[in-house]
Write a structure and sequence with these properties.
binds pyridoxal-5'-phosphate, 214 residues, alpha/beta, 9% strand, 4-stranded mixed sheet
């Protein structure tokens, strides 16, 4: 993986017993990691899980995450899902949207991208700080024909969101969020999670940088 990612990521991989082989750059330079993987594949001892192109990723997330979302709305509002957002890295999680649309055909799917690296929206190829997403590519498992919108989320807003959830419980409580919920949010989201929250909440807002893909 790229050498300028968060220390939590490296710690998690070491905890699994893995060794790190770091390539240059950050999230926006995943291509270098893929090139390294291609080199490593020349040794038949190595196997790549190939999350960007193999369908177990799509199938697992469509089934597990998609059906979890469908279950989660039972008894909430009209019990239906109107829209699903996910910020693609591999775009595996976006596959949940396909399952949601199968259950609720009126639902729309929005892919979220960093404003600073808006590859699907307009071929943008900049650097950004939302780890796990916006890898400057459209992956083979991304079902583009079922993606209705791209919404662009600004880097700075995700970083501010992480800070508010992490350090701003008192402010959230003053704004009316329940104490237990505000404290529970502290470690619940990283930047890509906040990006998803912002994407979902900007769905109807006029300030959303939404582009219809069709
Ligand atoms: C922190 C984080 N957020 C979001 C994603 C994107 O999820 P997906 O690969 O299912 O599109 C990833 C991908 O690995 C990730 O590591």
């Amino acid at each position: 993986m790229p050498g300028s990612m968060s220390k939590e990521r490296y710690a998690r991989i070491r905890k699994y017993g893995g060794e790190l082989d770091l390539t240059r750059g950050s999230e926006s330079d995943v291509i270098l990691t893929l090139e390294r993987t291609r080199e490593l594949m020349k040794n038949p001892k190595n196997k790549a899980l190939a999350q960007f192109e193999l369908f177990p990723n799509y199938r697992f997330l469509r089934h597990v995450t998609g059906n979890s979302a469908i279950q989660a709305v039972q008894g909430v509002g009209n019990g239906r899902i109107a829209g699903f957002t996910s910020a693609p890295g591999s775009a595996g999680t976006l596959a949940a949207g396909d399952q949601i649309k199968a259950a609720f055909p009126e639902a729309k799917i929005a892919a979220l991208e960093p404003y600073e690296c808006s590859t699907l929206a307009n071929g943008g190829r900049g650097q950004h700080r939302i780890e796990g997403i916006g890898d400057k590519m459209c992956t083979l498992i991304h079902n583009l024909l079922n993606t209705d919108f791209v919404i662009l989320i600004k880097d700075e807003e995700t970083v501010q969101g992480v800070k508010i959830f992490h350090d701003g419980a008192d402010s959230l409580i003053k704004l009316g969020v329940g104490r237990e919920l505000a404290l529970g949010l502290r470690d619940a989201f990283g930047p890509s999670g906040i990006c998803n929250v912002l994407g979902a909440s900007s769905w109807r807002s006029t300030s959303a940088w939404a582009l219809e893909t069709t």
